[in-house]
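Hi Y.,

Following your request, here is the sequence exactly as I used it, all 166 residues.
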Amino acid sequence: MAIIKRGSKYYSNITINGKRIRKALSTDLKTSKMMLKSIEVQELLHPEEPEQVRIMFKDAVDEFINECYEVENAYDTLRYFKGKVTMACSVLNHLKAYQAHSKIQYVDEATFANLSAYMRYRKKELSNNTMMKIRGYLNRFFTFAENSDWIVKSPAKKLKKYSMNK
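Below is the corresponding structure, written out as tokens. Let me know if you'd prefer a different format.
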């Protein structure tokens, strides 16, 4: 039984029959343990294939920006501002550039090959510090997508801090 606490909420992190199950449980540990037990029983009694819901990249980015930076509808409306939303603008612009370069429509279409090609492309024109920031943005976004069960595994985890020499 694995329960993980993030912030004030508990999450399940268990594997049953080779299937990893991560779900939000509760803010109370005792309730979370009971919910986790019921999930285990449900999975053992009625194992079923979860229906795969494909999330548009645009919608995933909006959700990510809203969750992390508290800016709603950022994908279509956000422009460069000074102040609180400057970081959100930077993250948004780099994620849009990745999407345009890779020509993907859905989050689950992202691959390590796409990310690596994008990083090589950007490496020609940007400094090492900016490249490391972009790597961090991509890593955070795809980890968020993985935790939201939009993708099975983050392709950005394989990105290394490889030499950024031009």
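The first helix runs from residue 29 to 45.

Thanks again,
Q.
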